[in-house]
Write a structure and sequence with these properties.
The protein is mainly alpha-helical and about 375 residues long. Helix content is about 70%, strand content about 0%.
């Protein structure tokens, strides 16, 4: 129940134009609605229209911190105006995250719209949303964005059917980041586990064998036989697996590939994204070093440190757009055990690398920072 004193205080705040008072008014209206004790009354169309008008007029002028606090307060509110919740869901990711994760106001069509209109970070949060419906799952699978598929694979509560799981397992052939979450997914079947077995490392193979009682020796032999036939007598290692290329040979092959692409004028910034989407982190590093004329060890250093701004400088120097870098950083972290570190704060620092300065300045800054960090 709202007291007369409380109502008078809100009226005084409404007349004020001071930023602090506008924040107090915004949060005061939230408290008023939350303490109303009559959800049906708050949900009435006339009241919803009034609330939407009040909130939207205040949010337009609100500072970032106020919008963040508002998103946290409204994330679980069933009475929140849909227009306001959708605006907050499209705000920068730190503001949008609690709303995308929890808001009961967001419906399937709102989530699908986020998948189409919002950034990769927003799409990842949609894929992580608890109890995700089949409609939204289908939209994620249609877009087939690797980072979003990986988030979906890690969402054990999403409504995934057998066909959805089959598509994710098929995608794991090229998207290495999918393999670990899929191997642990509760809806993974024995048949799909046998398909996944071909593409995962030994530790995950052991896990799949234990979980589904697979005949690991027989599977290894079948894989070896198939590869031996495909590679016409290529050498086999002690475990019976065909050796297509050892580490040094693989690196040499990647260098030759990059050299050929560069000589033909086909090595462009877009190739970096393609390499990551195929799960080939070392190929990405080789291509980035060649494009920027950087020392490979400096690129490797940028990938493994806790300063993602170094990687951002390298990417900015070769023409990667600011809007694309968050996707690159997400995929690199997925393929490189969470590195470069720094979390969300590091990602924000990295954005400063894409300033008004020309690419040449970013290249100089990267070389200087890499030498200092060596």
């Amino acid at each position: 129940m709202v007291t007369a004193q409380g109502s008078q205080r809100l009226l005084e705040l409404a007349r004020s134009r001071a930023p602090g008072d506008r924040e107090r008014l915004l949060l005061g209206v939230v408290e008023l609605c939350a303490a109303g004790g009559a959800p049906d009354a708050v949900a009435a169309p006339a009241v919803q229209g009034l609330l939407s008008s009040i909130f939207m007029s205040l949010v337009v002028e609100a500072e970032r911190d106020i919008r963040r606090r508002l998103a946290e307060r409204l994330a679980t509110a069933p009475w929140a105006p849909p227009a306001l919740i959708n605006v907050l869901a499209l705000d920068e990711i730190e503001i949008a995250r609690p709303v995308i994760e929890k808001s009961p106001v967001l419906k399937d069509h709102d989530l699908v719209r986020l998948l189409v209109e919002a950034t990769i970070e927003h799409q990842i949060e949609v894929a992580r949303r608890p109890q995700l419906s089949g409609v939204v799952v289908a939209a994620i699978l249609r877009q087939a964005e690797p980072a979003v598929l990986t988030a979906l694979a890690g969402n054990a509560t999403a409504d995934l059917n057998d066909e959805d799981m089959r598509q994710l397992v098929a995608a794991a052939r090229k998207v290495a980041a999918l393999r670990t979450p899929l191997s642990r997914h509760p809806r993974l079947t024995a048949d799909l586990a046998m398909q996944l077995y071909v593409w995962v490392g030994q530790s995950l193979r052991n896990s799949l064998v234990d979980r589904f009682r697979l005949d690991g020796a027989a599977l290894d032999q079948a894989i070896a036989d198939s590869l031996r036939e495909a590679h016409a007598g290529a050498p086999v290692d002690a475990e019976g697996l065909v050796i297509v290329a050892r580490e040094g040979e693989r690196e040499e092959m990647e260098h030759k590939l990059i050299d050929k692409l560069h000589a033909a004028g086909q090595l462009r910034p877009g190739y970096l994204v393609r390499a990551l989407r195929e799960g080939r982190l070392s190929l990405f590093a080789t291509a980035l070093a060649r494009l920027g004329r950087f020392e490979p060890r400096h690129i490797r250093q940028a990938l493994d440190c806790d300063r993602p701004e170094l990687l951002a400088l390298a990417c900015a120097s070769v023409g990667i757009d600011r809007s694309v870098f968050p996707t690159i950083l997400t995929m690199v972290r997925q393929l490189n055990a969470g590195r470069p570190g720094g979390g969300a704060e590091g990602a924000r620092r990295a954005a400063s690398a894409f300033g008004p300065s020309p690419p040449q300045a970013a290249a100089v800054a990267f070389r200087q920072a890499a030498r200092m960090a060596s």
